[in-house]
Every structure is written in C-alpha cells, then in structure tokens.
Amino acid sequence: MPLFESRITSALQQRTEQGLLRTLTPVHGGNKAQVKIAEQGFVNFSSNDYLGLANDNTLKEAWKTAVDRHGVGSAASPMVTGFSHAHQQLQDALCDWLGYEQAVLFSSGFSANQAALFALLEKGDCLYQDKLNHASLIEAGMLSPAHQYRFPHNSTQRLSELIERNGSGLVVTEGVFSMDGDKAPLVDIQIQSQKQNCWLMVDDAHGIGVLGQEGKGSCAESSIKPQLLVVTFGKALGVQGAAILCSSSIAEYLRQYARHFVYSTAMPPAQAVTVTKAIQITRTQQWRRDQLSELQHAYSSLLGELPGFIETQTPIKPYLAGSADRAMSMASHLRQQGLWATAIRPPTVSRGKARIRVTLSANHQLEEISHLAQSLKQFECQYPKEGC
Ligand SMILES: Cc1ncc(COP(=O)(O)O)c(C=O)c1O
C-alpha cells in the first residue's frame, strides 16, 4: 500500500478502536440555543455563542446591508487591496474598546496565535506556555525555533522557576481556559513576567465579551495589560475572525513579518462591519452578561451536588465523566432527552478527564438548565462511576 494510504488507514483504525473517532454533525437553521439536528430539536449546550449574538437580528441586518455596499469578499491580502475602510473601522473600534494603540486583524484565532509566535520567536528564545493552552499556541511553540517550556496549569511558581533557570522570553496564557472554564491568575502572571523582563501574551478567546466592564475581557477584569492581547470574534461576539491588540511598533512588525497576515486573503469587509456592530452591542447590552450570570448561578445551584460538577466563574462548565466511553454514553443519554452537549475526549483533554463541555448562552432558559440537571442526575444514578 502506498505510504500515505497506509498511514491514513491505520490512524483512522486506531482512533476507531480507541473509541475516539470524531464525527461531523450538520446543524440546521443556525447555531442557536435551540437547534435542529437530523430533523430533531435539541437544546444546544455546545456552542460558544455566550452572548447569543450569532443569530442576532441586528447583526444579520448589518451583514446583509454591508454585502450590498462592499460585496461578498475582500478579494486580496490586506497588504494588496484587501484592506478597506470597513477593516479600518473595526481596528479603531477594537482599539477604542480595549485601550491599545493598534489592532491587527486575522481570519481566525488559530491563525492570529500562530502568526504572533512565528513572527516573534527566533532561535535561542524562550517561550513559556501554560500546559493547557490551545492547540494553536502549543503547536506554534513546538514548530517555532524557540525553546518551549510548558508550566503546569496556572502554576505561577513553576513559571517563575522556569524563567529564573532559562532566562527571559515570552509568556503565553489563555485568559479563560477553553476546556476547563477556569481563569488564569493574570495578576500574578503579569508580576512574574515583568519581574523577569518577559513579554506577556494573553489569548482571551473565551473571556472577551463575557468578563469585565463592557465585556472587555479577562485582562481588563484583572487590570492588567499584556504586550499582546489576542481576541477572537467567533465566540461571544457571534461572528468569526480575530485580532491582536498591541502597540504601534508591534503592529507594524506583525504587518511586515506575520505570514498569516501578509499571505492570506483579508476577512470580507461585510464581516468586518458586522464584527464592529457586534462590539457595539457587546459594550452596551450589559443585560446579556447579567442574564448569563443568572444562568450560571442556576447551573451551580442545580448541578452543584452532582459528582461530575466543577465550579467555574465563566459560562464554560466542564462536567467530568472520566473515561472516553463514559463521556460518550453521557452525551448519548442527554441526546435522548433532547439535550445536545458534546463529549470532549483525549487527545483534546488528558486521559481519564473526558467530559461533557457544557456551555451557557444568554439565550438559554432557566427550565433548560433544570432539564439538563435532571438528565445528568438520572444518568449518574443509572450508570454510577466505578467504585460508587
Ligand atoms: C483559547 C482559544 N484560542 C484560539 C482559538 C481559535 O480561535 P478560532 O476559532 O477563531 O480559530 C480557540 C478556538 O477554539 C480557543 O479556544
């Protein structure tokens, strides 16, 4: 068998045998708090649409109007003719919101993270990353010419020891961790970084829009200002894309040297218009965050006694199952009850830590959370974890 064919066959076989094969499931009629999948209605506890903006009527209208004005695509890289007034306005809106001199736009958070690390790091540099950082960051660190040191999750003490031993460099953490829903100790991390002359980069994909005044995110909530702040538009803002907020000189450097920026088609201008509108809504409609906070309290009081419950202060609510098989059975039980909550298994999380990643949206109803609690309780009674 030719090399690639046999590699593909055996990799797929291995995933299947381990019960770790992932499947693509199409959603009909928009990714809302209530979705239709395979002709059946479900309450959706698996989107990152925390503020309920992905199907917001004002945003839909903004996109439609902008398409009439700007067309459907940007038609070039930003350095050629892909950059428009719509992109400029989005940059300005981001800077005004988050208090930075500049914002560099990317088509996704994945590419923003990779662009930053590949552009900044050279041979001999030190890169310090939280062990649970997103795959885009860890992979960029592995492929970059720098020495990558991964510190245990949220351990500022280990971070400090690593920097002391290996020297100054770039420290990278998430603001809110995507699979665990916990927050990074940003104040301590900034103190350690500054003390040892490191630069700090925070990926706030899951904090932006949700935390802090006007949804300014984890850094604003902790009153810190990293040299590089990555925000994404595909989660709380309900759209797609990302930006790196930074000083004018870093932005200029990224626009010259970040290959994901220079050699990639700019996001459609109509999308930039929509994200700008989403920022305005996020800043001014505090009721969405208030609603989310009410739902989070309800989640804790309704599920707090269950064995898989983990307390978080964000809308990401991991519910621990244990083995990958048990997580799959849990997800399947929930589906039978009309609840869609995806099982997250290795390699996304470590072995034995498979879970249901429940996410809350401002568009959920209290009764839906109560239904989720009932269904999980039922599962725990029917299929207790070994040893219970
Ligand atoms: C922490 C974190 N950073 C970056 C990304 C990538 O962002 P995007 O989905 O815009 O590529 C994600 C997406 O899952 C994420 O969770």
TrEMBL record:
- Listed InterPro entries: Aminotrans_II_pyridoxalP_BS, Aminotransferase_I/II_large, AON_synthase_class-II, PyrdxlP-dep_Trfase, PyrdxlP-dep_Trfase_major, PyrdxlP-dep_Trfase_small
Provide the gene name from the record. Answer: bioF
Reactions catalysed, as given in the entry = 6-carboxyhexanoyl-[ACP] + L-alanine + H(+) = (8S)-8-amino-7-oxononanoate + holo-[ACP] + CO2
Its Enzyme Commission number(s) read 2.3.1.47
* Principal EC category: transferase
Q: Which residues form the Aminotransferase class I/classII large domain?
A: 42-376
Q: Which GO terms describe its biological process?
A: biotin biosynthetic process
Citing just one GO molecular function, the answer is:
pyridoxal phosphate binding
Pfam families listed in its UniProt record? Aminotran_1_2 (PF00155)
- Pathway field: Cofactor biosynthesis; biotin biosynthesis
Q: Which named protein is this? A: 8-amino-7-oxononanoate synthase
UniProt KW keywords: Biotin biosynthesis, Pyridoxal phosphate, Transferase
- Annotated coiled-coil positions are none
Query: Does this entry carry the keyword rRNA-binding?
Result: no
| Necessary cofactors | pyridoxal 5'-phosphate
Similarity remark: Belongs to the class-II pyridoxal-phosphate-dependent aminotransferase family. BioF subfamily.
**Subunit arrangement?**
Homodimer.
Originating species: Vibrio superstes NBRC 103154
